Amino acid sequence: MKTNRWKSKMWFIAMLLTVALTSCNSTVTEQTPTLKDAYQGMFVIGTALNKGHNYGTDTLGINLIKQHFNSIVAENCMKSMHIQPTEGVFFFDEADKFVEFGEANNMNIIGHTLIWHSQAPDWFFVDEDGADVTREVMIERMRNHIHTVVGRYKGRVDGWDVVNEAFMDDGSWRNTKFYEIIGGEYIKLAFQFANEADPDAELYYNDYAMSAEGKRNGVVELVKQLQAAGVRVDGIGMQGHMGMDYPDISEFEKSIKAFAALDVNVMITEMDITLLPFPGDETAEVSLSAEYQEKMNPYAAGLPDNINAAWEQRYIDYFQLFLNYSDNISRVTLWGLTDADTWRNNWPIEGRTDYPLLFGRDYQAKPVVEKLIELTNNNE
Ligand code: G3I
What we know:
Elements: H1 2-25, H2 35-38, E1 44-49, H3 51-54, H4 59-68, E2 71-74, H5 80-83, H6 93-104, E3 108-116, H7 135-152, E4 159-164, H8 177-182, H9 185-197, E5 202-207, H10 213-228, E6 235-238, E7 241-242, H11 249-260, E8 265-273, H12 305-324, E9 329-334, H13 367-375
Parallel strand pairs: 1-2, 1-9, 2-3, 3-4, 4-5, 5-6, 6-8, 7-8, 8-9
Helix pairs in contact: 7-9, 10-11, 12-13
The structure holds ligand G3I.
Ligand G3I binds at residues 75-76, 79, 119, 164, 208, 239, 270, 284, 286, 343.
């Protein structure tokens, strides 16, 4: 009897210890319903996975991703400079892990990106003497790159950003090496190669500043031409790199409508809302950079409530817009998980403290998450 009482006392203490230790260890509070549950039937909710997620070192991050998201995109590991840094030498290790994670968790898996002027290795465009390759060689390199990468993940990656950022904001062609050497036909060829490599994967054109009238018209024209030529384009990705005053929501809506009218899926592919001051015109042009200045990093010590409230409202307004077009929008993807990971901390000025994402540096869902979840109640 005495022994039994002692045993149950010990059991009780052990229980208390377990509860205490568990609550110390797991700093991530579970939320019900989660983002992906709340938006079920409207669109999938995605996030971009970085190295720590792909290799499983960011365990808290991985738990959050599993809870809240049902779509994933590779933030960096599938870009040509990472996946084929030298001609014919492919580095698939991280991309393999990314795809395996998505499969193991039954997620919609997006490959990013096959043809992008930025983060493309130099060898892609030049011969052994450093001179530009011929059009034929360039096309062959594109074909080989796309066939090898898409072919490896055939039937496993659900959709590809086939071409990224081919236009300037005014709708003119971006003068990339692909454009310079092949001409505008490079886009058509890229989509054809991707279709050959995996006829069942969805194929997308993806760009930023899609609310700009010129770019909107340029992309509409491109997709119409591809469709007229019998080339399959399944969706248009509107990168959502936003700020507090940019883009104008009504201009963004015009682009959703214009793209939806092409009978393709519309996707918000890289959403984040920076609240830091921007040097010059707001854009997502990656080549832009500026010197660090204290006044350009105003919230390093914390975020004032009024700024946070205005930021939350921007997210709410945009998610309400997405809900209004949920018949046309198939996916909304956040460009990263927590404020600690975001590219915004280092662009266009290095070393700032930004707060553009839905989860804080402490891996906690920000209060806006609950509000975005509540928003779906009015939509049923
Ligand atoms: O991983 C290395 C690290 O080992 C090294 O010490 C460090 C030193 O600079 O660099 C790290 O790599 C950086 C990488 O991000 C991972 O953090 C690269 O320098 C940096 O250039 C790279 O930036 C990425 C950028 O694209 C360029 O590829 C951002 O993470 C990524 O968020 C950003 O994403 C783009 C989309 O692909 C296309 N649309 C615009 C969007 C934002 O620029």
